[in-house]
Amino acid sequence: MLARQLRAVLPRTWIRHQSSTSGSLFKDLEGSSSAAEKESADAAVYNTNADLLNHPYIKSKMDPQGKTATEELLSPLKQILYSKVLAANNGKFVNNQTVEHEGSSYELSLTPEQQKALIPSVYIQSYRIKSSWKKMYMFLRMYRQMGLTEAITQSHFSSRRMARDVANMLERGRDDAIKLGMNPETMHIDQIWVGKDGNDFRRIQFKGRGRTGVITHPYVHVKAILKDNQVREDRKALIKKRLDRKLWRPLRNWTIKEDDTQTPDYKW
Q1: Bridge partners of 147?
Q2: Calpha distance 93→95 (Å, rounded)
Q3: Nearest-CA neighbor of 147 among 207, 90, 230?
Q4: Alpha-carbon distances of 217 from 137, 196, 204, 222, 238, rounded to whole Å
């Protein structure tokens, strides 16, 4: 029922493109939604694109919902202890800290992988960008560990063509951070990388003496992970601690002293 209604509204070319791919929109709408959503979707009439955007499945894809990793990684008791440790240290987790709960003392210990997964972050991905990965890699080097607002400003003032697409991606990440209850002013780009998008456009290049070549127009995509500035400060403190430690020496600076036991002969 829903597929027939959508086919009556959407253009024929768009429907043929969606049906030819493996991940069809109709299959997602009919297979992933629950029985209650199917009944409400079948009863609705989609006359315009605005009506289609009100579908619960499409709204869930457009408006991100915060996924709590604490429910997947920590038990109910550890979740309470983890929240108390964060409240005692101004939002920073301290391993093996003693916490009181219901008259008992506990020490919560988490692995570095668990601590990294529990830090709130925003994952963003760009659209298809016409550029090569070598040019994009050299351009993205300046965004490493840069603040989010500063990175958006740099993108707007850059003369590179791909800077506009990167700025659009970062602005969408900023909006998603606000929807998830995070402060974009205190966030930075923790990781950013580029990958080939595939399906490069190729055309014929005509040469002299009846010869031809192939011109390839590559396409790439950019992905990034946004995190709070506290993660960057902790990394800087760890690096400074490693650099400031004293150098270990295998032997002490002993002085040879003359005594009665020393002789010019070698002793085994």
Answers
A1: 188
A2: 6
A3: 230
A4: 17, 12, 11, 17, 43
> Which residue, chain included where needed, has tokens 């925003």?
122
**Structural domains of the chain in order of their starting residue, each with its CATH number:** 2-62 (no CATH), 69-118 (no CATH), 121-243 (3.90.470.10)
Question: Can you read off the two tokens belonging to residue 111?
Answer: 């692995």
One-letter amino acid of 201: F
Please state the φ and ψ torsions of residue 70, each to the nearest 5 degrees.
-65, -35
**Per-residue pLDDT reduced to its tens digit, 161-174:** 999 999 999 999 99
Tokens 């619960």, located at residue: 56
Give per-residue pLDDT as tens, 2-61: 445 544 444 444 434 444 444 444 445 455 555 555 555 555 565 666 777 777 777 776
Distance from C-alpha of 268 to C-alpha of 265, rounded to nearest angstrom: 10
* Whether the model pTM is above 0.70: no
β-bridge mates for residue 204, sequence order: 214
The terminus-to-terminus CA distance of the chain in angstroms comes to 96
* C-beta of residue 162 within 8 angstroms of C-beta of residue 129: yes
